[in-house]
Specification:
430 residues, nine-stranded mixed beta sheet, eight-stranded mixed beta sheet, 9 helices, globular
């Protein structure tokens, strides 16, 4: 990959680029699939990619191809230079300055195909024995490997070789004519030492699917507390980045927090990090797509906004600091000091939310959608499963009304998340 990147970089400069960058990657995926509790597919997929960026007279040209031979690279370079000639000048466009170049080795010892199959087969057998009412809609078990290089004309050169497993399934509970809503759980893994059924909160979600065979309606309309589980990261954490911290919201000026750096924006109970280097994160980013070494970054610390999730371009465009990485999905929420049982005991009437489906929130952070795979909390106890129930809240208001954060956390190899209890959420039933 270094040779391919060097060739492409040299070709862009010879073609007239003032500045240039490229990323060359070669990946392989060995994948095993199960459908309806039966093995259905075993395949190997190869993925080559080359992304080029040319800056000429302040104008940008970019292109991405899926071939790495020299003829294809030459054509891509010519296309990229031509696109730059047609673009509009933009002073915010740039490439990363030279820092310490590094090679990263995140390999885990290669692919153990026999063990991946045996773990998958074990999972099917354990489901049959322990959760006979569960029907798998699909299961995937994978081994992923990649060799990736970033280089630019300032002399930046990064390379990473990485390997990891991924395993997970989507499922429903069935009992005669009754069926639950589907749910799913996937994990990134650095090895195969743990049975798939024991990964993260897999057993909890399987059990809750069976309990969901006899759901009830939430009575009336109520403004109160909800507990958001680690299975529901998109409802809070990814939405927060999308609304207030990322390139689009900051460049467009729609973020409510655009001028709030180093000020208190949410409850002091919340510390949120983008943490690709956390030891529980598997296959985390080691360098950013725009050519910087990745470091863990506090986005919010004790309720105070410490960083936006900005690329080099967005930082130049807005005059705000660039983020330390581009892996905002590798979220770490610092645990609190309350046991989950105590959080539940503090809810007189509310819901435990495992999955959320809703439209993209507006710039104000107003969120509205359907709580799925969720449960009623009454008088401090989790009771009946609920049919799909509408919930609505303002994200900023909700995060300023954090009742508590559990000391227990869950990791799926992507994120490290606790359970969070919020107040002021509107729950609408019948």
């Amino acid at each position: 990959m270094k040779d391919i990147a060097a060739y492409a970089l040299d070709a862009m400069l010879k073609a007239g680029a003032d500045k240039a960058s490229c990323q060359a990657a070669q990946g392989r995926k060995d994948e095993l699939n199960v459908e309806a509790n039966k093995f259905t597919l075993l395949r190997t997929l190869f993925n080559d990619s080359l992304s080029l960026k040319v800056l000429k007279g302040g104008r940008k040209g970019t292109t991405t191809i899926n071939k790495l031979d020299r003829e294809s690279v030459d054509k891509a370079v010519a296309d990229c230079v031509a696109l730059a000639a047609q673009g509009e000048p933009d002073e915010a466009e740039d490439i990363a300055p030279l820092a310490a170049n590094k090679d990263f080795d995140a390999r885990i010892g290669g692919f153990d195909a026999d063990k991946l199959f045996s773990r998958s087969k074990e999972y099917l057998e354990q489901l049959k024995d322990e959760f006979p009412l569960i029907m798998l809609e699909g299961m995937t078990a994978e081994f992923n490997s990649e060799n990736k290089t970033y280089a630019n004309s300032n002399g930046v050169l990064f390379n990473t070789q990485s390997e990891h497993y991924n395993a997970g399934s989507s499922f429903v509970a069935k009992d005669g004519e009754k069926s639950s809503s589907f749910n799913y759980y996937y994990s990134n893994l650095a090895g195969l030492n743990t049975p798939f059924i024991d990964l993260g909160i897999t057993r909890t979600l399987l059990d809750e699917s069976i309990r969901s065979l006899n759901p009830r309606m939430f009575d009336g309309k109520h403004v109160g507390k909800v507990i958001v589980t680690p299975a529901c990261a998109d409802m809070l954490w990814y939405t927060l980045v999308e609304c207030f911290l990322n390139d689009f919201s900051m460049i467009q000026g729609t973020s409510r927090w655009k001028d709030a750096l180093d000020t208190k924006v949410v409850s002091d109970k919340l510390t949120m990090r983008s943490a690709p280097l956390h030891p529980a994160i598997v296959g985390g980013e080691r360098f950013t797509p725009d050519g910087f070494e990745s470091v863990n970054t506090d986005l919010i610390k004790d309720g105070v906004l410490k960083s936006f999730a900005l690329s080099l371009y967005a930082a130049n465009k807005t005059g705000k600091p660039r983020a330390g990485n581009a892996s905002w999905w590798n979220v770490e929420i610092a645990p609190g000091d309350a046991a989950l049982d105590d959080l539940i005991k503090g809810v007189d009437k509310g819901i435990l939310i495992n999955r959320f489906s809703g439209a993209s929130p507006g710039p104000s952070g107003d969120v509205s959608g359907v709580a799925k795979n969720s449960f009623l909390i009454e008088n401090g106890q989790v009771s009946d499963a609920l049919v799909e129930t509408m919930v609505s809240f303002n994200l900023v208001d909700a995060l300023n009304n954090i009742v508590g954060i559990s000391k227990e956390t869950n990791t799926d190899g992507y994120a490290v998340l606790p359970w969070v209890c919020l107040d002021g959420v509107t729950i609408s039933g019948k």
